Amino acid sequence: MKPHHLFVLAPALLLAAQLHAAPAHPAEPDPRRDASVEAIEKVLPSVVNIATTELRQISDPFEALLREMRGMGRVEKNTSIGSGVIIDEAGYLITNDHVVRRATEIWVKLSDGRERQADRVVTTGRSDVALLKIRARSGEKFTPVKFAPDDDLILGETVLALGNPFGLGGSVSKGILSSKNRRPPPEAEPLGPGDWLQTDAAINPGSSGGPLINVRAELIGINVGLYREGQGIGFALPIKIITDSLAGIFTPERTRGLWFGGYVKAVAKTNGNGATVAGPLTIVGVEPGSPAEQAGLREKDEILRVNNRPVRSFIEFNTELTAAAGKSPASVEVSREGVARTANVRLIVQKEFFTPEFIRGKIGATLTEVTPQMAAELGLNRADGFLITDVDKEGPSADAQLQRGLIIRAFNGQTPDDLVEVGRLLLRKKKGEKVELDLIVLRRQANFLISQAGKAELKVR
Predict the structure, then answer these.
(1) Which of 133, 137, 203, 399 gets the highest tally of CB atoms within 10 A of its CB?
(2) Using H for helix, E for strand and C for coil, what is the string for 69-108?
(3) Of 265 and 95, which is predicted with more confidence?
(4) What's the pLDDT score for residue 240?
(5) Closest C-alpha to 249, from 417, 427, 49, 419
(6) SS3 of 35, please?
(7) Is residue 44 included in any domain, yes or no?
């Protein structure tokens, strides 16, 4: 009996063991979770709502009476809403210049509900790109977006326009890339639709400044808006314009006030399959006399490491380069024609180098920045430019017949933001090289100051 029972039970035990060991049936993939959904989930934490406030003093016939009664004139408060996208974990973000151009205060709201005030670092009116910095709390980090290579765009590819127009968590629309930018970038005029990407993805109200991404969750553009004359035509600044702008504004000079003097960007390359891929960070320009030049860095050097750490973007490069500023030089390892070299770069505090005395040594005149209060007193519409407060008896400015009280608005068509930029611009000029100045000439007529435009030319010494 026992052998018989064993014979009967053995198959049952074997079947039970097989059932117990059988792998669980894998769950069916959710057909809704396609590449677009996954890309949106990756990028939404980088998208912010931007709310701006503009306070304006109102002038009307009753302003004097209001000042007497309340001690101040009437103030008008304007608000506007747009979007932006975070590009660095420290809280740097980009948006359209037109979203924040006139802002007195800027607030951002993240997708997780956090609200923080932000500061304008620099804006570029020509390309319509603005760089902002969130006022982060101690130890607070943010989720940055990943950049696509500059020219990695495919007509007809799926694109997604993201925004956070009302701070409610995000807005998404889907379409295709209808057209790339259609002309070489003009040198002197503002960029327009001919320079932008075109898409049929709806750019919803308030999404201006938000990211346009591909299905790899990479930033390929910044939303500008819809074309009012056409149906379903949206525009975005292409990634190449964004990276070109950031290469000039997301720098140690702009973010930390430290002079490096090298311009860095990722240069796109073509792989063996003919596809455009992100190339290495490359130095695309070096200012004469700068710390970069003194350290031996040259144009076309490909950056390998900074402080023995590999860097994948100019944002990482900037962060690592300035990490030990003031304490020790930064070690920058580059590849030049296939040969590895190391340069030790000691950054310089710009304001300590590009002083009014430095500028006076170049042009023979002392300049001071025009402040809003000064502009109001002089009856100027804009608080920009540089007032000549003194002129050497002999020198380039005296030879050009410049006088105290004149205001310089531009140098060779460029409008520097501050005296540091003036100093860097003059440093790039060789001795005896001419600089054309756009001037504002103030003349007193009866009890009024009349401003007239003028020009002058001087030679840098």
Answers:
(1) 203
(2) HHCCCCEEEEEEEEEEEECCCCCEEEEEHHHHCCCCEEEE
(3) 95
(4) 87
(5) 417
(6) helix
(7) yes
In 429-458, which positions are buried (b, 16+ CB within 10 angstroms) versus exposed (e)? beeeeebebbbbebeeeeeeeeeeeeebeb
Can you tell me the distance from the alpha carbon of 208 to that of 146, in angstroms, rounded to the nearest whole number? 19
Assess contact for 263 and 248: CB atoms under 8 A. Answer: yes
Q: What is the DSSP letter of 185?
A: P
The rounded distance, in Å, linking the Cα atoms of 131 and 79 is: 20
Looking at residue 23, what is its pLDDT? 58
Per-residue model confidence as pLDDT tens digits over 7-39: 444 555 444 555 455 555 667 888 899 999 999
Q: Which residues contact 23 (CB under 8 A, 6 or more apart)?
A: none
- CA–CA gap between residue 236 and residue 179 (Å, rounded): 10
Question: 94 near 132, Cβ under 8 Å?
Answer: yes
Tally the domains of the chain. Answer: 4
pTM of the model as a whole: 0.71
Going from the C-alpha of 392 to that of each of 192, 398, 418, the distances in angstroms are 44, 7, 22
Number of H helices, E strands in the chain: 13, 28
**Residue 12, C-beta contacts closer than 8 angstroms, at least 6 positions apart:** none
Lowest pLDDT segment from 18-22, 46-50, 334-338, 417-421: 18-22
On the 0-12 / 13-18 / 19+ scale of CB atoms within 10 A, 171 is buried
The residue type found at 214 is N
Position 6 scores a pLDDT of 42
Residues contacting residue 367 through CB under 8 Å, at least 6 positions apart: 356, 359, 386, 387, 388, 389, 408, 419, 422
Nearest Cα to 386, choosing from 420, 409, 354, 412? 409
- Give the CATH number of the domain where residue 171 resides: 2.40.10.10
At 326, list the tokens: 């003031």
For residue 133, give the 3-state DSSP assignment. Answer: strand
Q: What are the distances in angstroms from CA 286 to CA 280, 283, 427?
A: 17, 7, 12
Could you tell me which residues come within 8 angstroms of residue 138 by beta carbon, excluding any fewer than 6 positions away?
Answer: none
CA atoms within 13 A on the CB side of 153: 24
Same domain, 227 and 279: no
User: Is 23 part of any domain?
Assistant: no
Amino acid at the residue 149: P
Task: From 350, 385, 401, give the residue that closes a domain.
Answer: 350
Does any domain span residue 338? Answer: yes
Residue with the two structure tokens 């009302």: 166
Please answer whether residues 395 and 364 qualify as being in contact, where contact means their C-beta atoms are separated by less than 8 angstroms. yes
Closest C-alpha among 41, 60, 59, 190 to residue 111: 41
Domain shared by 96 and 152, yes or no: no
Range of the domain at 285: 251-350
- Beta bridge partners, 179, equal 198
Residues 345 and 425 in one domain: no
